[in-house]
Amino acid sequence: MGKAKKTAREILKDWGVAEFHVIDKRAISEITLGASILATGGGGDPEIGLLWTYKVLDEGKEILMVDPMAVPDEVQTASTACLGAAIVLTEKPPSGGVLNLALSRLERYLGRPIGATIPIECGGVNSPVAYAAAGERGIPVIDVDGMNRAFPELQMTSWVTHGVHASPTVSVDDRENVTVIDTGADDVLAETLARRAAMAYGGISWVATYPLSGEEMKRTSILNSQSIAWAVGRAVMRARVEHLDPIEELLKSLRKERDVEGFRVFSGKIIDIHRDFGSETNKGFTLGTVTMEGIGADKGRTASLDFQNEWLNLRVDGEILCLPPDLIAILDTETGEPIRTDIMKYGYRGTIVLIPAHERMRTPKGIDLFGPRHFGYDLDYVPVEDLNASRR
Predict the structure, then answer these.
(1) Which of 119, 124, 249, 348 is deepest in the core (most CB within 10 A)?
(2) At 129, is the secondary structure helix, strand, or coil?
(3) pLDDT grade, residue 2 (50/70/90)?
(4) CA-based max dimension of the chain
(5) Are strands 169-172 and 64-66 parallel, antiparallel or unpaired?
(6) Which residues pair with 142 in a beta bridge?
(7) β-pairing verdict for 64-66 and 141-142
(8) 156-194-38 Cα angle (round to 5)
(9) pTM for the full model?
């Protein structure tokens, strides 16, 4: 008989790790809400990621999250993610084996086992699926990601801006088609090929990507990003129960967890939407613009936002208040629930909150890879705190 596979607890014991978080249903629901808020309008339908993770827990599998600095340098890690247009995912939910298939094929290509998962971003789907994949395979999930927000393209990560790469990436669909992408240091080409595979699969693919050593993971990731999302989600859920202002509780959480100031800049309702869902001409992205009419104290003012899966920039009465990579969230004023680009409708009301991007996303290479000029705007990046200095 073959040797029994180790559990996540046994793996952590081998690493000499005695402290970790056991992720139960309440924890993953709080993490997913926080990640959805930080996802800047993208990240997909959180119900898909949540239900997937609930299923893993219902099967009696354990999900353990570990601090990144406790991970040995030589451990192989990798990220799991959904790639494509979020609206397609809503219409075409995955089968349970896609992440296992992607990780198994990546292990085969690398020739070594993957010892832990790392979420690729903060998003309603891509945060919890990393937990689900870890639970299914009996390995830990690490308290990091590559953005501390969501972004539409594979190369838009702190990992790339700090010198590591997405290749090899394994892309699969729910019919068990597999594509291996290895472009070396050319991460933009890796994104292009992964996007084409997703379109060939019908608009959505599931990927295992960013195979990083423990040393690379610690040196290049957004450290403790999942704890930040967890604290944000917990604060908003507490606000709902205690009938507090969820926006204010969110901002307090960011001050405590990240020592950054977020900005509540506009309250309004959506009066116009132009949107194109994941077509071939848009390379599988959901693109468009939305216009909001001010209400309450903002009556008479107009906000406009562009998006490519996620919100990109914000103008209020023609004045630019936020540019990528800084974060824009439109939140239901009463509940703090994020209004995503794939579900927004005429008449939706919400409050716009702006949040500074993590410092590992604001490097010169980061601004080149995912600043305003990358998205076609003839604008230099200005930090959101400078654009909103009068609101401090």
Answers:
(1) 119
(2) helix
(3) very low
(4) 74
(5) unpaired
(6) 66
(7) parallel
(8) 35
(9) 0.94
